[in-house]
Structures are given as structure tokens and as C-alpha cells.
Amino acid sequence: MPLNLPKNLPAVDLLKKEHIFVMDSLRASEQDIRPLRVVVLNLMPLKITTETDLIRLLSNSSLQVELVFMKIKGHQPKNTPVEHMRTFYRDFDEMRNCCFDGMIVTGAPVEQLGFEEVTYWDELTEIFDWSRRHVTSTLYICWAAQAGLYHFYNIPKYDLPAKMFGIFKHRSNDPYRSIFRGFDDEFYVPHSRHTEIRRDDVLKVPGLKLLSESEEAGVYMVMARGGRDFFITGHSEYASNTLHDEYVRDLSRGLSISMPVHYYRDDDPANPPVVRWRSHAHLLFANWLNYYVYQETPYCIEDIPMLGDLGQ
Q1: CB 3.0–4.6 Å: which of 26, 97, 155, 225 could bond 149 by disulfide?
Q2: Which of 134, 170, 191, 235 is an active site residue?
Q3: Amino acid 233: pLDDT
């Protein structure tokens, strides 16, 4: 099944070139199928890039998904046109009375600040609390995973001596868990972060399950509330060139940055990246949609205000 996306969203044309089947909301409305409603709180600076990365993965499912984008009120991104935000994003206030099948909260370039120093922290935590009453399952990615674990469970983050930057090997601590259906015994994940959470802090909390970790990159996936919350410290959604673009950007700014490890062929930045995380990424999002969103969504959700009631 295709994704049901807002008309004229730039990601649509970009992904059609990759032969990914998406359709706009008008065409989807002609089908007698209630799609899964997934809301994305996109905190990344390059909104269109992140939209494209997520849509690429969410489209690889037999389920029809309707996507809507949420933004933080009063925070104007510097790297995305105002018109794009005005056209495709909605404030939380417009959605607070609605329910969604799934939610994705992305990372954000604020990880070296204390959580309470982030200008939108109060609104963000209000959204986190709202999601527990209005969303079936939520996927927290990178900094959002750290923020969610801190907000709900008081788990701290720690500065790293150097940026965790590259592609790292991971293992599952519970390979028969549905989120890992189809995974290999070892799988790879991109990481790009200056901070970490630590396994000892996670293991102290009875309501948390440490599902996956890496010898080099540490904690990767933590689950809470039986799969209603997943906290993922890496960037499985990253495209093949994302780490390269970050590396070149930081070099151009004169920052002290090492090249991403286990990424370029023969560890030579003159060579192209070797993509080893694509299949895992597709399985991760497909399993989340199928086993923790679709199969867990209460039937009564159709009686609660949804995206269609927002007038889109």
C-alpha cells in the first residue's frame, strides 16, 4: 500500500525517482480504506531531507499510512522555507484533541544543551505527555530518545569525549521480539551524536527493557510500556550520503571532526559510502508499523477526532 501524503510535498517527487509508490490525499480519499494515521514531530534542521528519509522507509509496508507533520509553536527553522512550514506543518495546539495510531519524534541539533535549556522544552514535554494519551505507539529517535528517557524516567545523558560518528555493529538482546522480525544476528546502524545514555541507568528502571546495544556505540534501543514507546539512539532512517554531508559540512566550518568510521569503502573519504544499514532500517519501520501500531490500535480510535477533522 502507498503512503497518503499532502499534495505537492517535495518528498513525493524526490521519491518517485526511486520508484517508491506514494499518493496525495485526494487520490487516497477515493479508497475505502482507513489508513493508519502517523504524526511526525520533525525537530531536525533540514526538514525536507528528514521528511524524505522517513517517507522512504514508511512506504515499504503493506499498510496504507497517512502522514501529518507537527511543529513546535514559535520556533522558526533556519534551513527550511517559511512557506514549506506554513503549508505542510501544524502547531500542536491544532492537534491536541486528536488521536493518532503512531508518532515519530526526530532528533534535534540541541544535544549539547541541558534539556531544560532547550527553548521549546516545556512545549516538547507537553507533547510527550499528550502522546501517551493520544497515540498508540511512539518512536523517539536520537536526541528525542534521550529527551524522552529523561522526561519520563529521569535518565541522564552524558557528554562523549568525541562525537559518535559512523556505522556501528549492533546485536539484539531479545531476538524473538517482534520489532526484530527478520533481523540478522548482527545489524548496522548510523550514529551521529555528542552524548549518550548508559546501560546501567536503563537497567535500574523496572519499566524499561534494553532491547539492543553495540560494543562501540552503546545503548541503541530501549522499549517501554510493552512497545507503546521505543527510544532509539541511532539514525536508522539516514540516507546513504547523510553522514558524508555532515562530515563535509563540519570540515567546511573548520570544526575538529574525525571522518565517520566504518562508512567509506576502505575507510577512504575519496571513496563512496558502503550502505550496510538499509535492510535493517526498512525492517525496523515495517515491524513497528505492523506489530506495534496496526495490530495494537484500538478499534474505538475511529470514533475519536483524527487528522481528517483538522480540515486538511
Answers
A1: 155
A2: 235
A3: 97
- Residues 311 and 94: their CA atoms lie apart, in Å, by 10
Q: Could you tell me which residue, 74 or 224, shows the higher pLDDT?
A: 224
Specify whether the CB–CB gap between 106 and 144 falls below 8 A.
yes
> 158-172 and 135-141: which strand pairing?
unpaired
Catalytic residue, chosen from 51, 66, 213, 237, is 237
Q: Cα(158)–Cα(160) distance, rounded to whole angstroms?
A: 6
- Residues in a beta bridge with 107: none
CA angle 92, 98, 103 (to 5 degrees): 70
Please give the grid coordinates belonging to residue 154.
529521569
* Torsion sign over Cα 192, 193, 194, 196: negative
pLDDT at 176: 94
Asked whether the predicted pLDDT for residue 310 surpasses 80, the reply is no
**Alpha helix positions (H), the chain:** 10-16, 25-29, 47-58, 82-88, 121-134, 143-153, 199-203, 242-252, 278-287
Residues near 266 by beta carbon (within 8 Å), at least 6 away in sequence:
none
235 tagged catalytic: yes
Residue range 98-156, pLDDT digits in tens: 999 999 999 998 988 999 999 999 999 999 999 999 999 999 999 999 999 999 999 99
Contact 225, 205 (CB under 8 A): no
Active site residue 237: yes
Q: How many residues does this entry show for the chain?
A: 312
Catalytic residue among 142, 191, 196, 282: 142
Look at residue 299 in the predicted model and tell me its pLDDT: 45
Provide the pLDDT confidence category of residue 77 given band limits of 50, 70 and 90.
low
Question: H helices then E strands: how many in the chain?
Answer: 9, 12
